[in-house]
Amino acid sequence: MYIQYRTLAATTICFALSLLALRKGILAYVSLTEAPPTSLIGCLQSIKGNKKSYLSIPSSPTYNNDRLGYNRNFVHKPSAIFHPASEADAVAAVVCAAAHNVSIAPRSGGHSYEGYSGGGKTASLVIDLNLFLQFAIDHDTGIATVGAGNRLGTLCTKLWKAGEYLIPAGSCPGVGIGGHALGGGLGIAGRKYGMLSDNIVGLTMVAANGNILEVNARSRPDLFWALRGAGGGSFGLVTEFRIQAYKAPARVTTMEVKYPWSVHQNVINAFGIWSKSVVDDFTGMLYIGQGKVRVLGTFLGSQEEAQTALKSLFTLTGLPQQTTFNESTWYQAAARWAEMEGANLEDPYTEHALAFRFRSLLYRQPISDSELAIISKHINNPPNNPDGQVTISVSLEIWGGKIDYPSSASAFDNHRGILYSIRYGVEWNVSSPDSDSICTECMEWNDHFAKELQAAYSSGQVLEAYQNYIERDIPNGLQAYYGDNLSRLIEIKKSVDPGNIFVFPQAIPLS
């Protein structure tokens, strides 16, 4: 019911591709020495570059599994899924899609909240960058070179083994670096080091015309600005990142503080006040669910320092039911956040099928009493799923600190000054990715919750929401995600993708 369809005007001619893909922004060369394929599939099958590149099409035995993203609530049917193993093959796939007027959906990890990494609709070409796993670090500058196929858990392991480095990325090990970094990248050390996007110092991008662009503050500064906050698939195919990494502190403390449900409204109020003044070494969230109220956090320092930072919260809330502190290395703390304590985050693992609908709002001041009442009402009245377990939750994730004051003057300037984001919604287990696995009551509960909370929104004149928690039906979504930057983003879109090849339902438009 949320899937949109688009009629694709297929061309009758496709170039057989023999590509000399040169870096530094030089257009890839297209040879016409072979008979042109007559379809997108034929065009993709003609790519004879890196032997590791591979193609998955609807007739392939791997296709049904390959097209699935993490969120089984939105399952799309791409025309094809191409996995390039080189920049030349990535260029070739982009040229094929452009020749056939087929929209492209880049995929790094497949964790888009609305399934946009699967196209967001039927008949897109998904270019999956899972084979771009390159990694290196310059020990003099601390700049890491990272392929767009790296997942956060794998990357955390590589950084740690390279010399106990960290980047301020998120905690879910299966999330791909691509969409996470291009949409902001709120992470578990963000208040100390800023958004992950703020720490990108350069990117390599395949543009719609086949050019390979090196993008940084000196080369294409407008595109550099746009990619680091609004670049999640709207402007081109980002294949590589250069990211500023940091030496991890000697000790890191993770914490969990539990309160009884009876005081959840008081804790929410106190958390908003406390968030304004907590030190930047603390990054954390308040989680409220069915009968659960917990403060979870990471402190870049010792347990004693972490306990000192929380004293002012306890003054506001009263003593909690239980407090748990774990002092460890950074890597152990990241594994604990990922619920993989004692494991290597680079170990293979399979994510179970999960369906969910989560949304977000951003607040510049603590939420109002009327909004607290709406949250309490919906948490106390969860939906029913006849087919399995339902989990509902609301998380208040602290922003501020270095997020408000990025070191780069060219940082994407949206959402600075946010006190916290609210991420709210429902998830349910599914046995299959088919449409009948949708929990109708869950979706209706989520829709009613969203409409009431958005109507009561007290933080400003217009809704603000976090683009990495994208939701298809939020009112005035592009305004909520990008604010006054939207007109500039549209002009940049026109300059690099005038044919609108990189498009999904909430992409930056041409007008």
UniProtKB/TrEMBL annotation:
Domain FAD-binding PCMH-type residue range list: 74-248
PROSITE patterns per UniProt: FAD_PCMH
InterPro entries: BBE (IPR012951), FAD-bd_PCMH (IPR016166), FAD-bd_PCMH-like_sf (IPR036318), FAD-bd_PCMH_sub2 (IPR016169), FAD-linked_Oxidoreductase (IPR050416), Oxid_FAD_bind_N (IPR006094)
Name of the protein: FAD-binding PCMH-type domain-containing protein
Cofactor(s) this protein cannot do without: FAD
SUPFAM superfamilies, per database record: FAD-binding/transporter-associated domain-like
UniProt record similarity statement: Belongs to the oxygen-dependent FAD-linked oxidoreductase family.
Keywords attached to this entry: FAD, Flavoprotein, Oxidoreductase
Top-level taxon in the UniProt lineage: Eukaryota
Matches recorded under Pfam families: BBE, FAD_binding_4
GO molecular function: FAD binding; oxidoreductase activity
Tagged with keyword Ribosomal protein: no
Organism: Podila verticillata NRRL 6337
Keyword match Mitochondrion: no
